[in-house]
Design a protein that fits this description.
Layout: H1 2-14, H2 18-93, H3 103-113, H4 124-131, H5 141-179, H6 182-189, H7 193-196, H8 213-253
Helix pairs in contact: 1-2, 2-3, 2-4, 2-8, 3-6, 5-8
């Protein structure tokens, strides 16, 4: 093609047809420009197609991760509610008439409050989307905004779990260790009760905790810390549900 253009220009010059040569040259330039523009358009279209495919694939993986997180969080919310209710039950049972309370019920409530159901957001795909900048290829601005909120949500969850862990390590467990047999509780309710077995020491009346005002204050504070975490879990569940809905729409639109 280039050789054809070159021969045509040479022929026009040799024939002295300067005006026709100029028109032909201009036409040739226009054709070249059009060719470049078409090539750019095709390249842009191909790049856009690749980005859309990548974005759709990322959205699918992120949707799977999000829905799995929702399932896990549902179970942790149920466990946290159970722990919260155990704290309230213990508070109702505290006082000088502790010997009127059921020993087995007391032990079961103690076992329930010594563990904090924790939710660690699985965010491998989410982190990939943010760190690689692929979030910017998504069409929905609402989806982008929700995704960018999650690093802060993850930090908030970790900080509040840390508050409870610090409280339990510094106050709850030392008080339990001082006053009752934890092994006696585990021997009844722990999943490892067969391996642990009964305590080798005389049976203690763990209800004595109910007559300890310091223990009552510890459980009172534990309730507030747990309730704060539960509210955060509920907010996170709402955000995950919104993220799931927006991702589904993003996949449909691509």
């Amino acid at each position: 093609m280039i050789k054809l253009f070159k021969n045509t220009r040479k022929k026009l010059l040799n024939e002295g047809k300067t005006s026709k040569y100029l028109k032909y040259a201009i036409g040739e330039i226009i054709l070249v420009i059009i060719g470049i523009l078409v090539a750019l358009q095709v390249n842009n279209w191909n790049t856009g197609r690749i980005q859309n495919n990548d974005s759709k694939e990322l959205s699918k993986r992120l949707l799977l991760e999000t829905n799995q997180n929702i399932i896990i969080l549902d179970s942790q919310i149920k466990r946290l509610n159970k722990s919260l209710n155990a704290s309230l039950e213990l508070l109702k049972m505290t006082g000088t008439n502790y010997k009127e309370k059921e020993i087995k019920k007391t032990d079961s409530l103690i076992y329930e409050i010594i563990s904090t159901p924790r939710f660690e957001l699985n965010a491998s795909v989410l982190n990939e989307a943010i760190t690689t900048g692929k979030v910017s290829n998504m069409k929905s601005d609402s989806l982008k905004n929700v995704i960018y909120e999650f690093p802060s949500i993850i930090t908030t969850i970790r900080v509040n779990i840390g508050y409870i862990d610090t409280h339990d390590d510094n106050f709850l467990f030392p008080r339990i260790y001082d006053l009752i047999s934890l092994r006696q509780v585990d021997a009844k309710f722990s999943p490892n009760k067969k391996e642990l077995g009964e305590s080798n020491f005389p049976i203690t009346d763990n209800r004595i905790l109910l007559n300890d005002i310091k223990f009552e204050s510890i459980i009172d504070n534990k309730y507030f810390l747990t309730n704060s975490l539960l509210l955060i879990y509920h907010d996170t569940h709402k955000k995950l549900s919104i993220l799931s809905r927006l991702l589904s729409k993003e996949i449909e639109d691509n």
